[in-house]
Design a protein that fits this description.
The protein is α/β, with parallel strands linked by helices. α2 links the parallel β3 and β4.
Length: about 300
C-alpha cells in the first residue's frame, strides 16, 4: 500500500529520480533541461522571438515572447515566470505553458529567463522579473499589448516570483496588474507548516529539497527575510490584484500556498482557490490527465475573466 494516495494518473512520477538536494543535483537537472527538445506542434500558430533588455544592475536579460500569429490589435499580456526552485532554467514544460496561455487566452506572453541561484541568489532573480515588467509596459506599442491588462503568472518558484512582483509593483508604484496567478507557489521560507515538515519523500519535490532551495536562494541574505523573497513575510497584502492560487495535495508547498491565499482574503484581496486532489508538485506536466485538463481550464477561465473583460 502506497504511503500517499496519489491519483493513478500521476503515479508514474513516483518512479522518477528527480533529486534536488545538492549542487550536483542542480548541474544534472540543468543538463537534462538543455537536451530536451520542443515538439513543433506546441508553438504552432504562434509568433515567437526573443529580446534582450537590461536588468536593474545593468546586466543583460533575455525574454522569450509568444503571440498569436493573427494578432492585429492590442492584446492582454502575461509576464510568465518559470519554476525550478529558483535554481533551474527554462525547459520544454515552460515553453508548453507559455504557448498554451498565448493561444488559449489569447494574449502576448513574455517568458523571463531570469538569473538563477546559487550563482545569482536573491534579489537578482526577482529584480530581473520586475525589470521585465517595467520593460513590457515601456514597450507596449512595439509589443502590441494593452497596459491595462497585464498579469503575472508562475508555477512553484515562479509562483513566488509572481507574488513578489505583485508586492513590488504595489510598493514601488509600478504597473497596475490586472491579476496574479500562483500555481503551487513557494511563499514561506520558515517551512513550519505540516506539509513542509512531513512531506519528506513526496515525488518531484520534498522537504529536503525545499530546505536546500531556500538555503541557495537566500545564501547571501542576512537579517529579516524580505517579502520579495518570501511573500508570507509581507506585513500587509492589502491592495494586491485579484489572485488565483492552485495547490497540489501531496506537495510540501501545499499548506503555505493555502495560507498565503487565506491571508490575501483576510486583507480584502479577491482570491480564487483551486485545491487539486491526488496530485503532486508539478503534476500538470502530465497533460493527458483529466485533472490537469480541468486545472488548465480553470486557469484559462480566471485569466479570461480578468484580462478580457471590457
Amino acid at each position: 500500500m502506497q504511503k500517499y494516495n496519489i491519483h493513478k494518473d500521476f503515479r508514474v512520477l513516483t518512479r522518477l529520480n528527480m533529486r534536488l538536494s545538492t549542487l550536483d543535483d542542480i548541474h544534472k537537472r540543468r543538463l537534462l533541461g538543455k537536451v530536451t527538445t520542443l515538439p513543433i506542434h506546441i508553438t504552432k500558430d504562434l509568433k515567437i522571438h526573443n529580446e534582450i533588455l537590461w536588468s536593474h544592475d545593468g546586466q543583460q536579460l533575455k525574454v522569450e515572447i509568444f503571440a498569436p500569429k493573427d494578432q492585429t490589435e492590442k492584446l492582454p499580456c502575461i509576464l510568465f515566470y518559470h519554476g525550478g526552485g529558483f535554481m533551474l532554467g527554462l525547459n520544454e514544460a515552460h515553453y508548453r505553458y507559455a504557448s498554451e496561455y498565448a493561444k488559449n487566452v489569447p494574449c502576448v506572453v513574455i517568458m523571463v529567463d531570469y538569473r538563477l541561484a546559487p550563482e545569482y541568489p536573491f534579489p537578482n532573480g526577482v529584480e530581473d522579473c520586475y525589470s521585465a515588467l517595467i520593460w513590457a509596459k515601456s514597450n507596449a506599442e512595439k509589443l502590441h499589448i494593452d497596459t491595462d491588462k497585464i498579469a503575472v503568472v508562475g508555477e512553484s518558484a515562479g509562483g513566488s516570483l509572481s507574488a513578489a512582483i505583485a508586492l513590488m509593483s504595489r510598493d514601488r508604484g509600478g504597473p497596475k496588474l490586472a491579476c496574479q496567478m500562483l500555481v503551487y507557489p513557494t511563499t514561506d521560507n520558515e517551512q513550519n507548516t505540516y506539509t513542509a515538515i512531513n512531506y519528506t519523500d513526496t515525488p518531484v519535490f520534498y522537504s529536503e529539497a525545499n530546505t536546500f532551495m531556500w538555503t541557495q536562494y537566500l545564501k547571501d541574505h542576512s537579517g529579516p527575510v524580505s517579502p520579495y523573497a518570501a511573500p508570507m513575510r509581507a506585513e500587509s497584502l492589502v491592495g494586491l490584484p485579484p489572485a488565483y492560487v492552485e495547490t497540489a495535495e501531496f506537495d510540501p508547498l501545499h499548506d503555505e500556498g493555502l495560507n498565503y491565499a487565506n491571508r490575501m482574503i483576510e486583507d480584502g484581496v479577491d482570491v480564487t482557490i483551486h485545491e487539486t486532489i491526488g496530485t503532486v508538485h508539478g503534476y500538470d506536466a502530465l497533460k493527458r490527465s483529466s485533472i490537469t485538463k480541468d486545472s488548465m481550464e480553470k486557469r484559462y477561465a480566471f485569466l479570461k475573466e480578468h484580462l478580457l473583460a471590457k
